[in-house]
Design goal:
This protein is α/β, with parallel strands linked by helices. The protein has ten helices and nine strands. A six-stranded mixed β-sheet has the order 1-2-3-4-6-9, with helices on both faces. α1 packs parallel to α2 and α8 runs antiparallel to α9. This is Enoyl-CoA hydratase/isomerase.
Length: about 280
């Protein structure tokens, strides 16, 4: 499938999604909000991909929301237009939220490799990823406050779980930049590398290491970590034991043990392909 705002490539079990509007600093237009979740879901549904890396072409990772999406305000005297605008805004924003939820919901880990500016909606994007590697020149800013907006497509529900609340409030109220070193010191970035190329290489190395593990076990870890983040300890313990009661298979355990002893790739069962239809074999 071809995309207007992305380039998607695969190498074995690893997929790479590159934000590819460098002339517009990878600003997130209407095509982007539709294409990113479609790409992620297609890769996840294949059953063959075990990790996804997201990077970007050009000077910056992303300038965030393309402000051209706001359109022309309705005539204040047109009551129908004003009421419909509010309802349309809510509907469109919910769809945009799903764009980044697709990263969190997919079965495989998603790894961000960012450089330069990660602005506005870019913070929402990387907050929904599993791991984040940054170049030394990278910075992020919750930029919405600078244009009279409240960030609404995922920043606060996720960033508050990745950074101390006081720091999130500071970023949100001021729109200041958080540089790569500060992001690493506060635990947002897994590692800071010297260049854009080094950050991408590190992300791909991590994707390769993850792809060498049992896909089902990695899927389980992702589900359990996200669930534990959002629930109390008792509920999380109950969920993980219920998960393993159905998903733990001795064949996968033995494949992992054999791989560890021999140093050879594990003979793991792939995740099942998915589609939107109810399938047989329930």
């Amino acid at each position: 499938m071809s995309y207007k705002t992305l380039t998607v490539t695969t190498d074995g079990h690893i997929a790479r999604i590159t934000l590819d509007r460098p002339d517009r600093l990878n600003a997130m237009n209407a095509d982007f909000w539709n294409e990113l979740p479609a790409a992620v879901r297609a890769l996840d549904a294949s059953g063959d991909i075990r990790a996804i890396v997201i990077d970007a072409n050009g000077k910056h990772f992303t300038a965030g929301l393309d402000l051209g999406m706001f359109g022309t305000p309705p005539d204040p005297a047109d009551v129908t237009a004003r009421v419909q605008k509010a309802a349309r805004f809510r509907h469109n924003t919910a769809l945009m939220q799903q764009t980044f939820s697709a990263l969190e919901d997919c079965r495989v880990p998603v790894i961000a490799a960012l450089h330069g500016g990660c602005i506005g909606g870019g913070v929402d994007l990387i907050s929904a990823c599993d791991l984040r590697y940054a170049s030394r020149d990278a910075y992020l800013t919750v930029y919405e406050i600078n244009v009279g907006l409240t960030a609404d497509v995922g920043t606060f529900p996720r960033l508050c779980k990745l950074l101390p609340e006081g720091i999130v409030r500071e970023l949100a109220y001021t729109g200041r930049r958080m540089g790569a070193e500060e992001g690493e010191r506060r635990g947002l970035f897994n590692e800071v590398l010297d260049s854009k190329e080094a950050a991408l290489e590190r992300a791909l190395e991590m994707a390769k290491e993850i792809a060498g593990k049992s896909p089902l076990a990695v899927h389980g870890c992702k589900r359990m970590i996200t669930y534990a983040r959002d629930h109390n300890t008792a509920d999380s313990l109950d969920y993980v034991v219920t998960w393993n009661a159905g998903m733990l298979h001795s064949e996968e355990v033995m494949a992992a043990v054999t791989a560890g002893k021999t140093g050879q790739p594990g003979d793991y069962v792939p995740l099942p392909p998915l589609n939107d239809d109810v399938q047989g074999g329930v």
